[in-house]
Amino acid sequence: MTKASKKPTIQExxxxxxxxxxxxQRERADAINVRRRAEEDRVKMASFYKxxxxxxxxxxxxxxxxxxxxxxxxxxxxxxxxxxxxxxxxFEQNLQQLGVEKIKTVGEEFDPALHEAIHMEDGDGxxxxxxxxxxxxxxxxxxxxxxxxxxxKMDKK
Length: 157
Hints:
The protein folds into two domains: 1-98, Hemagglutinin Ectodomain, Chain B (Alpha-Beta Complex), CATH 3.90.20; 101-157, Nucleotide Exchange Factor Grpe, Chain A, domain 2 (Roll), CATH 2.30.22.10. By secondary structure, it is an alpha+beta fold. 50% of the residues lie in helices and 22% in strands.
């Protein structure tokens, strides 16, 4: 028998099987990681576009809310006003279904991650507290879509 036609031993075959098994396990782990990263990217992209669309729609909601704040008392019970109130309520329900929530403001401690202060009133305390909301802020989970624009007052809380 020549060296070229030498048959591998059982130990050599077991070693080869072990190497191939390890290579297969690495490939499977890599495939799992690629799928996981692709899913994470898909979720991030969906969240990005959801936030962008909501951000683009918010000025319309703001205008409806502003209009409702300035309804003359003599037409406050008019069906037209009730219709606008219904549209605003429906809009807010749809935002809620998308996971969008309004940022809490009045009475809350000022948080620059959530609030944008455009006015500071003097007070008798040492804690900055939101005293008036000028424009609603919104977030999805921990991601702020738009900061709430507020007035802040020094308070004791």
